[in-house]
Design goal:
The complex is a heterotrimer of chains A (about 325), B (about 290) and C (about 325). With about 325 residues, chain A is mostly helical. Helices cover about 75% and strands about 0% of the residues of chain A. Chain B is an all-alpha fold and about 290 residues long. In chain B, helix 2 packs across helix 11, helix 5 packs across helix 6 and helix 9 runs parallel beside helix 10. Chain C has about 325 residues and is α/β, with parallel strands linked by helices. Chain C is about 30% helix and about 25% strand. In chain C, helix 4 crosses helix 6 and helix 6 runs parallel beside helix 7. Chain C is globular. Classes of the chains: A mainly alpha (about 325), B mainly alpha (about 290), C alpha/beta (about 325). At the A-B interface, helix 2, helix 6, helix 7, helix 10 and helix 11 of A face helix 4, helix 5, helix 9, helix 10 and helix 11 of B. The complex binds adenosine-5'-triphosphate (ATP), iron/sulfur cluster and magnesium ion.
Amino acid sequence: MEILQYTVRKLISGIPLVLGVTLISFLLMVYFGPDKTYELLGKNPTAQEIAEVRTQLGYDQPFLVRYVDYLRELVTLEFGNSDSTGEDVASLLARTIPISLALTGPGFVLGNLLGVLLALFAAFYRSTWVDKAIMASAVVGMSISFLIVIIAFQIIFASSYGLGWFPVRGWSVHSFGDYLSYVAVPTMAMVFVALGYNTRFYRSVLVEEMTRDHVRTARAFGVPPAKLFYKNILKNSMIPIITRVVFSIPLVIISGSLLIESYFGIPGVGKITYDAIISGDQPVLKAVVGLTAILFVLAQLLTDILYRAVDPRISLK
Amino acid sequence: MSAVAIPAVRRESLWSKAAWKLARDRTGMIALAFVLLYMLVAVGVTAGWWAADWSEVRGGKWEAMSAAHWFGTNLIGQDIFARAVYSTKTAFEVGLVVAVLATVIGAALGAVAGFFNGSWIDEVLLWLMGVLDSIPFYLFVAAIVFAMQDNPYAMHIAMISTFWTSVGRLIRGEVIKLRGLEYVEAAHAISVPEFVIIIRHILPNTTHILLVQATIMFVSAIKSEVILSFLGLGVKDGMSWGLMIAESSQEVMAGFFNNFLAASVLMFGLVMAFNMFSDALQDALDPRKVG
Amino acid sequence: MQADTQPLLSVRDLVIEFTTENGVVRAADGISFDVHENETLGIVGESGCGKTVTGLSILGLIPSPPGRVAGGSIRFMGRELVGLPDSEMRNIRGRDISMIFQEPMTALNPVFTVGNQMTDVLRRHRGLTRRQARDAAIEMLAKVGIPVPAKRIDEYPHQLSGGMRQRVMIAMALSCDPKLLIADEPTTALDVTTQAQVLEQIAGLQSEFKMAVVLITHDLGIVAETCRRAIVMYCGRIVENAAIERLFEAPRHPYAKGLLESIPRLRRERLDELPIIPGRVPNLLHLPPGCRFAARCPRADALCREQSPALVPAGPHGDFIACHHPHPGQQAEPAA
Ligand SMILES: Nc1ncnc2c1ncn2[C@@H]1O[C@H](COP(=O)(O)OP(=O)(O)OP(=O)(O)O)[C@@H](O)[C@H]1O
Ligand code: SF4
Ligand SMILES: [Mg+2]
């Protein structure tokens, strides 16, 4: 019951954020965005025709009415039809979001797990050559642009100039085997790009916890390394880790997949967002922006609840 | 009054110690040398000393490396080396403009938020930071590019408007911490105006954070510029490593890698050097860093 | 040294080094002392003189990096601890040798209950079941004077006061019946009344459990009340090691004498809060070639400034001193 009340309160306090995000993006994309009137009209339109189209597009309404309309769309998930394909935006999203999740999921999980693993090695062998080698590689990894990695991996693993193991681009998935072959190169690219950042982050978090007094106390009582790692180090570093992981989920789904999907021609949210950007397809853009804002509010709620689960000092206020 | 003078001393010793430490950091100094070398290249491009002919057609299609064309030529016969060198200027320009302005804006708004911590001003600024952080970056840039009708600085403005928030949060936190310190309270007690306290006593004590943040944003700006230009949302007129890579994405499938390699290697060198320099700077400026 | 009984703990020529940005620091340099069964040995000295690192080294807990035991030997019940593999050291830690730390506020794991942390130790070292361990923990908490221990055991450290947390630490340290307890300023962070209670408890438990205690402290008053013998450290070295009566009545090392002369106004106060001897402690990075105390010592001469005095036996009662010109002892020393 307490947790339910808390959830409701948190969701309500997320409203200003959603309003802010939608307002700014509405202003930029719709109000100052491209005027679509003439695209929909034939040559030499009459004043009558122009006025009709403008009414149809809602341009004749005052700003506030149009903005409130947008909010209503967001609440009811009825965003209308895509300007370019005519498909219903809600069903477009329902079709593409699962693809993006399937595409970015493995890379996201692996990138974090490998990051923790490397960070553990580095932290455990702190100041030795193992640590230095891992951290130097991390800086090298951080310095290579995602774009370059994608192209290089495509050449190396998928093209006829390299190993040619995987399909060059596209996403015709009919079986689990297909899935693996299409997801392989994007996943490797994502892991490669995230690994440097993740390793550095996890190492600094782990080292910070490893040097705490209570870790020394536990060692003084003979707690073995595995238990020490779990009970004293990992459990105490969960707050920064949760924050980072949860808040990167909305970004990975939208921004992370945008480049990969448009480069590999994979029909996920990133790809339709990119196409919508290029063609100025406002119903799609409005839907994506609005939903991202809602995802952020949910991420915030999720972190707050998880914080409480891992740290007894934090209570639901 | 003497209480107000204490931080100046502490600050000086922090800076001289940091400079000394940085000078002893061999990888940091090598990285700095590389950064300066790139900077020289960029200055040379701006001054017209070299790569002025980057857009001229001076050879055939996809020529191999030669004395005349160090990295060969592209599809329409332009010199790849000249284009890659010219792009250094673009990268530096974007990096500098974005890093400096985002740092200044972040410092100013962060300081204001921190100083008015607890009041509606702080609430509004926090809300603004949260909002800007929640808009997907590429969408935000695209929206600004559209709204500004292809203004060449649309990309810069988009990056600055999203990058400043991280500086803003850090400075806000630091100001809240510093505000409680004795010498600031002493200044309050002798009724120095608040903005004077911020500018004279608080902001100078955050410069080490700002410096490090500026180097981090410089790197992010360069990396974003390349991806945005590749996506067609960034540099429109002029040359950029991102545009070269966009060109090359067709070429590599035909087995011509020069364009891709030239842009990638030059970009990697700059980003790597800057990352290492930024790390060295952080090491030197972080007083509590151990092991 | 009492030649008849083998010491429980015997430290010889211990050297502890830390690698810092500005060079290698010797936080302990040539430390030698013995601890016998049932004995309480005090270690006193100003802040930074190396008391904590000496205590930590016995349990093999010097933070590494940046620190390491660079030389010497630590024998516990005849067994060499320096260089002992961590897996074997773990069987000694918390069971044969326990340690209580200086900082009660941060020494416990904040995300587990007191009971969870205590039963972990009991189950590992005494092989108890969950149920038995819990009962034993409650019993220990009651012994150290925690009211309603059956309730407190399920609380998290942040729900307890500093004094309570230190009692929990003590309960945990004594729960496996150790032969040696290293108490590193167990009361410094507490208020005066709590200090007295906690100290009484340690003393009471010591006689109940028949263990030896190494009591590290700033507070000479505490040493006088609780210890049979005390070591005075200065700048990483032992300068004097003497039985309490002799140390307090007729300290022989000029530094020890300086410390003790200020005792009336020093009771219950931290040594570093009152500069009692004029001058400053030298920086461990730039030590003088001779005696480390020479710059502040009224008896210093050319020899002192050139040659560092070694720690040598003084008198027939197992005392040691490191000084070229010590004060005369209580009575004329019989020729050795
Ligand atoms: N982690 C460390 N890194 C570097 N040097 C250290 C470290 N820990 C201790 N030292 C060095 O060892 C010296 C002794 O430290 P120690 O903690 O043993 O002092 P102490 O006598 O316990 O002082 P206090 O009374 O303040 O607790 C310090 O002066 C410091 O130079
Ligand atoms: S050796 Fe000399 S300087 Fe050192 S304490 Fe003894 S008399 Fe003083
Ligand atoms: Mg200590």
